[in-house]
Each structure stands twice: as structure tokens, then as C-alpha cells.
Specification:
- It is a single chain.
- This protein is an alpha+beta fold and about 400 residues long.
- About 50% of the residues lie in helices and about 15% in strands.
- It has helices spanning about 30-40, 40-50, 55-70, 75, 175-215, 215-230, 235-245, 250-265, 265-280, 285-290, 295-305, 310-330, 345-350, 355-360, 365-385, and strands at about 95-100, 105-115, 120-135, 135-145, 150-160.
- α5 crosses α12.
- It is globular and about 95 Å long.
């Protein structure tokens, strides 16, 4: 009887025990990029995503430069805010040049002469190409009080000795438009920041209370918000601005306008905060905080609001332009800030007359920084809103 042959036995594997320290990541080795991504915080992920939004990054740089100029407005402006030149009334913008008769001599402007056009009743300025006036840098010029604290006369650039440099022209009193725009940025840009502080304080407070407690409190807050939103904006601005006494100092009027803008812009944010809190208050960590005896104020401020802080930041960048436009509109209508305070809205009052605009169109130039800032804030808000949820 034939027996089947058994296959040869396989060699027995030796048991091996590694004496090396245990590495929990040895099973799944991560690349340097993956490891950096997995261990990054939410804020770092937001920053990485925000950097990919090129337009938002450029807008942020522009806004940083503009707000930085607010700190040193007196130094950047070639003239004092109230300096007048009666011989240069309604002078058009002077062209900045580098070459004279084919030779590079540095930044300069030509001297100007003027005559009165009796047909149009308009001063006609012409360049005297035989008299180049070199611009001086880091020079001594008009005296000013830096932030009202101490006197100085140092400027970034000045006109040549005995000359003038009006890169954006002059107004009806012979004041430099460029200098007044630089000074006006201090008011127009900061009024948006102060207004958003008031708006956010009210919006987070009332929206947080309504979203956390719900019930009757939520019902009352929502009805108040609906009443405020139902009021027409412009007539309400006019009424609140007219309440301010004419005897108030310019500083009080400035803070009054800021409070008005803040009181009218909190309703949308309050509803956004309420909807977020209605969803987050059911989370387990909120219940844990309640069982540990945390007060509602602490739960809202320390646990709920930080959960959507990124969305609040994006909302702020979109709300600030509304504040700036509100101040500009009120000042343009003569119901907001008044001289001697200077803002972009106050400067645009000069351009209310269509005949003046037709003859002296450079008086409309203060609207350019308004448009630039509004667009920059909107693009920055788009980038922040996209980066607010880095896990998408």
C-alpha cells in the first residue's frame, strides 16, 4: 500500500522581542507636513487658510498701513490741518516729477502761476517749467502739537523753501487737501472701531442672554430687535443726531456719533449670537459646567462665546465699514461731525455743490479713501469668514 508523502515541514520561526522603547506612532508613520497639520491648533489652521486668500491678505496689509498712519498723521501730512495759503485758493493737484530737461533731479514739482478767467470766473493755474521745486524729506515745516501733547515741526516731506507742494490740490480756503485727508483718517477710521466695541458689547450681551435662557426672555429680546430693525435707518439717524445740542464741543459730538452708530448696529449680531448659543447650550461641556456650579455669566463668557469667536471676528470686519459709511453720511448731511473736527465726511461737504465739483473735481478726492477702506474691509471679511472654519 502506497503511503502519501508528507510535505516537508517548514522551518520554525524564532520568537523575537524588541528591546527598543515603544513608539506609539511606529505603526503609522506621518510625514512632516501631516504631523504639523494634525498637531496644529485651530487658530493656526485659520491662519494657514487665510494666507491662501491673497486678496484678503493684501487688504489686511492696506488696513494696517492706514491705521498705522493714524498714529503719526501730523508727521505724514506736509502741512498743518489749518494752514491756509490765500494765494493758492482752489489750486489743482501738482504733478510729481523726477526728470527736468531730461536730467534726473529727484522728486519735485513745478512752481505755478495763476490768472483769473473772467468768462468762467475761475482761477487758472499754469506750471512754470523753468522753476523746479525739489521736495524735501524729513524736514522742518508747519508747527503742530503731536496728539495734542507736545509741539513739533518735523514732517515726512515738505515743499521747497518759498515754494508749495499740493499733490491733491487745495480747497476754497487754500488748505492742502492731502493733509486734511490724512488728518481726517484719524476720526473716520477710529469711529468705526469705537462703534464696533459698543455694538459688540450690546449684541453679545443681549444675544447671549436670549440664546442661553430662551423662553420669555428670548421672546422679549427678539421683539425689541424686530422693532429696532423696522425703524427706517436714515430718519432715525437724523433724529438722534438732531438731539445732540449745538453747544456741545467737537469731542462730545464725536463720541455722540459713535454711540449712535453703535446703538443702531447691534441687532444683527445679537441674532447671530442667539442662534449659535441655542445650538451650543445643549452640548455636554455646558452641562458639565452647570453641574460644577458655574454661573450663567461664566458659562456664556468662558465656554459658549469662544466657541464661535472666529465668526465674531469676521462679523466685526464687515460691520466696521457700515460705521464708517454712517459717519460719512451724517457728516455729509451736516448732522454729524462739524468743524473744527475733520473727517472724510466733513471734507466731502465741500463737494455738495455740483458747480464746485464741475470746476474743482479734486474736492471729491476724500471719497477715494472711503471706497478703498470699505473694499479692504469687505475683502478682509471674506477671507476671515472662509478661514473661520478651517476644517472644511
Amino acid at each position: 500500500m502506497n503511503r502519501e508523502k508528507k510535505p516537508p515541514a517548514s522551518p520554525r520561526m524564532k520568537h523575537y522581542v524588541s528591546t527598543a522603547p515603544f513608539d506609539p506612532r511606529s505603526i503609522e508613520k506621518l510625514s512632516a507636513g501631516q504631523e504639523k497639520l494634525y498637531h496644529a491648533s485651530q487658530w493656526r489652521l485659520m491662519w494657514w487658510k487665510f494666507k491662501r486668500h491673497r486678496l484678503a491678505v493684501v487688504s489686511g496689509i492696506i488696513l494696517i498701513i492706514l491705521y498705522g498712519s493714524v498714529l503719526i498723521a501730523e508727521f505724514l501730512a506736509p502741512y498743518n490741518l489749518h494752514t491756509r495759503n490765500v494765494e493758492k485758493i482752489y489750486s489743482p493737484p501738482q504733478s510729481l516729477r523726477l526728470f527736468h530737461e531730461g536730467k534726473f533731479i529727484g522728486p519735485f514739482v513745478y512752481a505755478t502761476t495763476y490768472r483769473l478767467d473772467m468768462a468762467k470766473l475761475k482761477l487758472i493755474y499754469t506750471d512754470d517749467v523753468t522753476k523746479p521745486q525739489k521736495i524735501r524729506f524729513f524736514c522742518r515745516g508747519d508747527q503742530y502739537r503731536f496728539w495734542g501733547l507736545f509741539k513739533s515741526d518735523l514732517h515726512l516731506f515738505c515743499a521747497a523753501k518759498g515754494g508749495s507742494v499740493y499733490l491733491l490740490g487745495t480747497d476754497r480756503l487754500g488748505r492742502d487737501v492731502l493733509s486734511r485727508i490724512i488728518y481726517g483718517a484719524r476720526v473716520s477710521l477710529t469711529i468705526g472701531l469705537l462703534g464696533i466695541i459698543i455694538s459688540f458689547t450690546l449684541g453679545i450681551t443681549f444675544g447671549g442672554i436670549a440664546g442661553y435662557y430662551g423662553g420669555v426672555i428670548d421672546l422679549v429680546v427678539q421683539r425689541v430687535i424686530e422693532v429696532i430693525q423696522a425703524l427706517p435707518t436714515i430718519p432715525l439717524w437724523l433724529v438722534l443726531a438732531a438731539i445732540m445740542p449745538v453747544t456741545w464741543s467737537p469731542l462730545l459730538v464725536y463720541f455722540g456719533i459713535t454711540v449712535i452708530l453703535g446703538l443702531l448696529d447691534w441687532t444683527g449680531l445679537a441674532r447671530a449670537v442667539r442662534s449659535k448659543l441655542l445650538a451650543l447650550r445643549e452640548e455636554d461641556y455646558v452641562l458639565a459646567a452647570q453641574l460644577m456650579g458655574a454661573s450663567p455669566r461664566r458659562i456664556i463668557a468662558r465656554h459658549l462665546v469662544p466657541g464661535f469667536m472666529s465668526h465674531l471676528i469676521a462679523s466685526a470686519t464687515i460691520s466696521i465699514p457700515t460705521m464708517i459709511l454712517g459717519e460719512t453720511a451724517l457728516s455729509f448731511l451736516g448732522l454729524g461731525l462739524r468743524p473744527p473736527i475733520t473727517s472724510w465726511g466733513v471734507l466731502l461737504v465741500e463737494a455738495q455743490n455740483i458747480n464746485v465739483v464741475a470746476l474743482y473735481p479734486w474736492l471729491m478726492l476724500p471719497v477715494v479713501p472711503v471706497i478703498l477702506v470699505i473694499l479692504a474691509f469687505n475683502f478682509l471679511g471674506d477671507g476671515l469668514r472662509d478661514a473661520a472654519d478651517p476644517y472644511k
